[in-house]
Specification:
Helices cover 76% and strands 0% of the residues. It is built from 11 helices and no strands. The protein has helices at residues 19-49, 51-55, 58-85, 99-131, 133-137, 141-168, 172-209, 215-253, 261-277, 281-289, 291-301. The protein is globular and about 55 Å long.
Amino acid sequence: MPTNTSNNTNNDTDFLLPASHCVPWIIVIGTESFLIVVLNLVTVIVFTKQRQLRRKKTYILIRNLAVIDLLAGAISGPLQIERFGGRCDVWGYSRKSTWDYYLKNALLHLFSMASLGNLVAMAMERAHAIFFPFKHRLIGKPAYRAIITIIWLVAVIRESFQVILMEIHENSEELLQMINSTLYVPYYLTSLFLVCISYCSIFVKTKTITRSKSRRNSVVSKERQVTSTLFIVTVVSLLTLSPVIAFISLGAFSNISFPSNIFYFHVRMIVILFFLANSLANPIVYSLRMRGFRAGLTELFGLPANLLNATHILPRHLS
């Protein structure tokens, strides 16, 4: 997650901090990454095995999001630990212009970009389901697989452009500002715009048809139940990504400075904590909102069936 901050803090190896500052963060980020892997692995298994969850085509996108989040915890999390551990007197971290370094740098952000793209796809898919419910039912699973392919291609192409910029640009400070202003901020803002437009149009559309008692209204009502859950997933994800967007935007468009290297380090670690939390929150939302998902959990772990009726925080819309 490169950012252009003050001149004395924008290179990972410009300073070394005592291990006492890094070890607690290694434990926190390591624990978070482990939980991300476990929870999303369970999510993938449940959405794959539970018949009720396999039937609905929308859940193909949810399953893809779980796979993305699983990879974020398994790959991006440890790479983040390796990178910021090089800032401390723990281990070294090479920033030489090698393809090994480029690949690691790409994998740091690939899955978050794919996750954001998946959120956009889910928002647009929900808008199509609400506006054209009968046409939406005619869309087959191959179309969803094509959407998933596009999500991954966009993320890979974006990371490839970053690698190219890193290879041809020698000035690290100008490089970071260029990457932030051309690849990060526009990607985040475009995704945010598409998500907001999709859900705002859904909100307006559902308000205009609630007075209707037609069969079309009942179809839209069923789609709205799924949409409400995916809306919560999207909102939670955007909230966890908002510190990242703010941090990168400040680095791209202002030459901010921090009181000390230690202060900068801890601010960046908090941002990374939220950055990875984007991949942690979704299974929690599913368990609170989706009865079918809870049924899959009880079946997978052999839990008592009456747990399905346990008190939960959020309204239960999916059955």
